[in-house]
Amino acid sequence: MTDTHSLKAQLALCLRMLENYGIIDYNGHASIRHGDGMLINNGSAQRSRLTADDICLTDLDGQVTEGPGKPPLEFHLHAGIYKARPDVGAICHAHPKWSTYLTMTGHDYLPVFAQGTLVHPVPLLDTPDSINSPEMSARLCETLGERPAALMKSHGAVTVGATIQEAFVLLNYLEENAERQYRALLIGTPYVFSDDEIAAAAKKLYNPGLFQRTWDHHAAKLEG
């Protein structure tokens, strides 16, 4: 496979895994920086059946230069982050339920298990509006800053990484932490990791090898 085709295949797999895990459904999108543009899923393609053939290459103004269909309406989310963050190589955006429940009820995201600490603190974009314009993208970028993740009130979440594996895994960690926090709140006050415990978790868990292992775990479940 060519390098471009391999990246398209990784991106399609990422979205199929997110759909299989219940983090996205008929919506949601992910991208990989590629040259002066980005690879992103065709907005109308079925997420559960995505293949490399459903990935298009666009410039950072959303103009398709290769591939089928059109990018999602929220391509501005991806384009804006790539313009603002040279360190970002991949982005995932979804509307996951557990972390969205927290934003709907005014609960801050709390680091309640080790992997979930990797994205803490998670800033909040205080509007449910879609990121479908340069202006909304600028607001999201300001909220995200240099963080690996941000939440959007009553809307969803975005994670970024050097690779699509990193962005995918961080979104999984964020959502699992949110579910644990939500369920713990039903029976009491959840334990929140201290600053020292957060630093220790980052030292042990924030590395490409463990991200790849988590990616492989989800891929094996999907392919099995």
Using brief descriptors, characterize the structure shown.
single chain, 224 residues, alpha+beta, L-fuculose-1-phosphate Aldolase, eight-stranded mixed sheet, 7 helices, 44% helix, globular
- Main sheet attributes: strand count, strand direction, barrel closure: 8 strands, mixed
CATH topology: L-fuculose-1-phosphate Aldolase
In the sheet with the most strands, the strands line up as 4-3-2-1-5-8-7-6
Residue stretches low in confidence (pLDDT < 50, at least 5 long) are none
Q: Return the average pLDDT rounded to an integer.
A: 96
The top-level CATH class is: Alpha Beta
Beta-strand share of residues = 15-25%
Euclidean distance between termini CA atoms:
23 Å
Radius of gyration: 17 Å
How many domains? The number is 1
In CATH, the architecture is 3-Layer(aba) Sandwich
User: Given the structure, what is the number of helices?
Assistant: 7
Tally of DSSP β-strands: 8
- Please trace the helix and strand order, writing H or E for each element: HEEEEHEHEHEEHHH
Shape field: globular
By helix and strand content, what is the structural category? alpha+beta
Tell me the CATH superfamily.
Class II aldolase/adducin N-terminal domain
Q: What proportion of the residues is helical, as a percent range?
A: 40-55%
Give a quick precis of the structure.
This protein has helices at about 5-20, 75-85, 95-105, 135-145, 165-185, 195-205, 210-224, and strands spanning about 30-35, 35-40, 55-60, 65, 90-95, 125, 150, 155-160. The chain is α+β, with helices and mostly antiparallel strands and about 220 residues long. The protein has one domain: 3-Layer(aba) Sandwich (L-fuculose-1-phosphate Aldolase), CATH 3.40.225.10.
